[in-house]
Amino acid sequence: NVNPDLASERQTASFSVEKLTVWLDGGVECTQMRRAMVEAIEGDPVFSRENQYFQSQNERYEAAVRKAVHLQKKMHEMGWTENGPEFKHIYRAVSGDIAFLLHRVFMKSISVLGSDKQIAKWIPLATQYQLIGSYAQTELGHGTYLQGLETTAVFDTTTQEFILNTPKISAMKWWPGDMGRSATHTVVFAQLYIHGKCYGVHPFIVQIRSLQDHSLCPGIIAGDIGPKMNFEHADNGFLMLQNVRVPRENMLNNFCEVQPDGTYTRRGSQQINYLTMTTVRISLIADEVVIPLMKACTIAIRYSVVRRQSKLKPGEEEAKILDYQTQQEKLLPQLAAAYAFHCTSDYLQQLYDKGYSEIQKNNFDMLPELHALSSGFKAIITQYCTSAVEICLRACGGHGYSLLSGLPSLYTKILASCIYEGENTILLLQTARFLIKCFMAARAGQPVPPSVTYLAAKKLGKCPARNKLDFLSPDIYTEAYQHTAMRLISSTAAKLQDLMQSGVKKHDAWNQCTVQLVQAAKAHCHYITVKNFTETVEKLEPRAGIQKIMKHLCDLFALHGIFSNAGAFLHDGYISGAQMDMVTASYLDLLPVIRKDAVPLVDAFDFTDKSLNSALGSYDGQVYQRLYEWAQKSPTNKQISPAYEKYLKPLLHNTLSKL
Amino acid sequence: NVNPDLASERQTASFSVEKLTVWLDGGVECTQMRRAMVEAIEGDPVFSRENQYFQSQNERYEAAVRKAVHLQKKMHEMGWTENGPEFKHIYRAVSGDIAFLLHRVFMKSISVLGSDKQIAKWIPLATQYQLIGSYAQTELGHGTYLQGLETTAVFDTTTQEFILNTPKISAMKWWPGDMGRSATHTVVFAQLYIHGKCYGVHPFIVQIRSLQDHSLCPGIIAGDIGPKMNFEHADNGFLMLQNVRVPRENMLNNFCEVQPDGTYTRRGSQQINYLTMTTVRISLIADEVVIPLMKACTIAIRYSVVRRQSKLKPGEEEAKILDYQTQQEKLLPQLAAAYAFHCTSDYLQQLYDKGYSEIQKNNFDMLPELHALSSGFKAIITQYCTSAVEICLRACGGHGYSLLSGLPSLYTKILASCIYEGENTILLLQTARFLIKCFMAARAGQPVPPSVTYLAAKKLGKCPARNKLDFLSPDIYTEAYQHTAMRLISSTAAKLQDLMQSGVKKHDAWNQCTVQLVQAAKAHCHYITVKNFTETVEKLEPRAGIQKIMKHLCDLFALHGIFSNAGAFLHDGYISGAQMDMVTASYLDLLPVIRKDAVPLVDAFDFTDKSLNSALGSYDGQVYQRLYEWAQKSPTNKQISPAYEKYLKPLLHNTLSKL
């Protein structure tokens, strides 16, 4: 029973939706596997998210624990492995709404930072959930700047123990997931002191709750940090340590060790730590950012062909809101961005795989580029997609604002991605530092990593486009992006040098350039995104209409970027005002072209109704019926409010005589 | 016990904080009145918002009803009048967190649309809360386009009644506040039919709940629409009508009437309806938009001088985050915007007062300008301030994401202002229609309203600025804004004409220009904002340092706008690339200047800690202590989760033997 306004949109697709889905998944086998897993999970009532929008933080937490425990059994039954390709699908199928995600980080950190002996002791217990782990790094007063952590671990040679303490309130661990109510153990990062000397931050396994009755261990104060903008299912916690003693063997010692007499030894490379951050940032782009944007686009675009409002022409019936240019201009660039960043995510994964195989051969050359790109892309993609989800929400008007649309929770959750795993501004400045370094090297004729070789090229004078159709040429717009990135990097490098030559100290000069450095880093990442999208489209087979529609999306993404950041392209006259009018014309011309395929383009993301969990976005488009049905389930309709008896009745009781 | 990092910021203010507060309030008497009222309300435990962040939708609703009922008593006791200047202060003091706001709209609509007889009957009952009213306009399938409403009211001459019906699901009333659980009566907007002929949308008073036991009246289906992104305290409702009969005298008939025989008469001006919308839009700018932004700035700026992170210089202690250029560039333009839009809000109020006094003299000439300006400003100010609050939230990192910071609820509430009282894109297109009309008139030598006389002026060729200091001249930047608004309006008018001359039909041509029309409307409102801010600053007395700091804020607001929309200014070469570098330099130079006074500038907003309700933003800056204290009050820490017994214990029970 599909709404006819939505059904008609599916009859005119210019490409094969199924083929596009398979391409997005990375092959027929992947699509089959994903669908089979989604079916297994969605068919299991334990994983239902039906009442999610009505639940309290306590109820959400309990459901998340139930799901996590059940999932472990289910994985065993189904033969799904923890580190196989399955987890990605599981995570998508449960929409991340399970407990013990930090337990996974606990295990990961022991695997990477622990010795073989430590791994042998802790990993089997953790795998069987015979303990529940967490990862206690961030403190109330300290986030991104790890060296600033204040928790202390003092080695006591007499007892062969570390004594852990929270010296003041700002040193309290704050935010770790799974720690507020679940965890029995955690990895605590603390400043190591031996014989009064500080050796910097090290990781220690600390038991925080009794395995017998789950009560807090002696010297431990821990609890939940309370309500957040989302993540009601997660028990983000706080932890204070008061003379908590752990045995010497609880310091994770794959890379450094404390001998019984207090001798400190360090071995191996620290660079591997960067690799862990890199892999986390790359995988969150797909799982926590691009998929939520795809969902938001699906909801907003389906709703926009069901919703009718006002008239385009007098005398006609009310128009589908997606037929208004302004609505197209809100939503279609976000749809193009979802495809663009899907490609970027693949690109980063390939780059990582390549880098990782080199590292296994003890070649660390790719690490700086990998770190710089993953930092910058984490920042721009989370930022772009967060804004994009918000645009989708607003574009659905009042109904988008209802939790039942699914959009508010997508927004409040994706917003967190701008903050966690490295604050975005700090990450962009790391990318900028890499770019400035490479720029200097390139100018000095030294070799630079592949993604920045353009910094060695000569600047182009002017954009050669002569009419609006020229701006549909990937060469034309990719070069414009390249030129702009280059200009911003070189002009900021020049400002930095000027300041230092005029006597400003290095650190002050850097701080005075940071606003522009951030712009330069963004421009570089935007350029690489456009370049990679065009290259991906070129490689597509022209069959089944997919290359053609993807080319349109790529053009739209690129021209939308120029249209919205016009100043950066006009600044030195590379693009003239007259050419910018051509960009605008080509950009606006693309909107009605892509609008025709908008519904098939979101159908290809292949989200089930259960996964969208949206009254506005389901496949059948029965928007109003579903809003009404779902609203009736709200607890506000299941209880006569005590407010009537207490407050309203006394007011209203003698009105009748006066009416 | 003020945090020393925050205390030191207050010792170096370049101006009198108290004098600035008084100026913001509009005079010493106003400040005194506001403070006395805040004290009376905050001293009353009924109005406490202490546990708000932990409450369910049901609890929030009950608290809001309790507060509303109590407020009525309190107003009577204190001698505060419903329509006096007091309500603004009350609304600010309770942060809008009370029930029966739509009851006020119910009363307003009867006062404006009802006859004297209707007013005499209903208003006294409503004033005493002997009935609770609501305002049922929006339908599930129909919002901004009122003519599309589907609810019907058929006049039955035999019984002298109107028969009201909801003919299909999309016609159900949806969203009205106070209707889901509280209201006994509502004003229903329905298509009036007499003898089979439709006379358009009219308002009818309909009883929906029993005055004896609050049960739904016969033929009424009503309830709560469920959870939203905010407004948990409000019982937004749905309403279906099935052959509900109301007597003839229940149609509000100040402007039109149905005679007993079905004869329909209309009298008076319809334009008064525009005036109601205008006054609502103008008052929401101050109450729902500018004040929340001022709160967000207060929280984020105070936190940013308490929070320390990383080092600006090696060897020094960690730096206050507000000392980083990037943090200044995030927050200080939002602070400047709060002051700018405070001035715009005053300007609109004065314009409205002038227009209203003209209308009372039966002169309706100002109405189109008033309508166009209030629409456009409602749109750009809600949009700008919503983004600004989000920037404040993100700038506080992880702690900003905690509900306890107060920022998430400010954001999720202000976001709604982009949607209600007219969807922003539609409002901007109404402004654009007015601008295009005035532009054509000006070109034809006809007179135009005062705010758009610049459309008749000759275009200036180039910006005359020769160095970065020139861009601190209000004439220079105001002219740049004027030029840009003019260019966008004239080029869009030209495109519109070209399309029509090439044979595109008027409505299609309009739709094809709407993206650019929205840009033009925004540019106009931005120009008026800058112009009004500069004029306000010029009029300030130079005493007490206030004019000087306000001049800095005005410069920052103006230059930030040019810096962020560089393309619009560079497009035709009015500002050159070299001049844009001067703008950037002056803009960045202003940041450390205003940073020095940032804390005094937010102190001047004079919010109490209770009103901010923020662990990050209170006057004493004891951020970490307060986060910890408040977190402990969370229900997640007051209950042992059933999840332990049910799910965790069975897993953990035999771990001990293995450790």
Search tags:
6-stranded mixed β-sheet; homodimer; 659 residues; 3-stranded antiparallel β-sheet; Butyryl-CoA Dehydrogenase, subunit A, domain 2; alpha+beta
What does this structure look like?
By secondary structure, chain A is an alpha+beta fold. Chain A has a domain at 103-263: Butyryl-CoA Dehydrogenase, subunit A, domain 2. Chain A is 54% helix and 8% strand. The first copy, chain A, has helices at residues 4-10, 17-25, 28-42, 57-78, 86-93, 101-113, 116-127, 271-306, 325-360, 367-395, 397-401, 407-416, 424-443, 474-501, 506-512, 514-539, 546-564, 566-570, 577-596, 598-603, 609-612, 623-632, 642-652, and strands at 135-136, 152-156, 161-165, 173-174, 185-194, 197-207, 220-224, 237-241, 244-247, 256-258, 264-266. In chain A, the strands form 3 sheets. In chain A, strands 1, 2, 3, 5, 6 and 9 form a 6-stranded mixed β-sheet that branches. A 3-stranded antiparallel β-sheet of chain A has the order 4-8-7, with no helix packed on it. A two-stranded antiparallel sheet of chain A has the order 10-11. In chain A, strand 5 (185-194) and strand 6 (197-207) form a beta hairpin. In chain A, helix 2 packs across helix 3 (28-42), helix 10 packs antiparallel against helix 12 and helix 10 (367-395) packs across helix 13 (424-443). The longest helix of chain A has 36 residues, at 271-306. The first copy, chain A, is globular, with a radius of gyration of 28 Å. The mean pLDDT of chain A is 95.
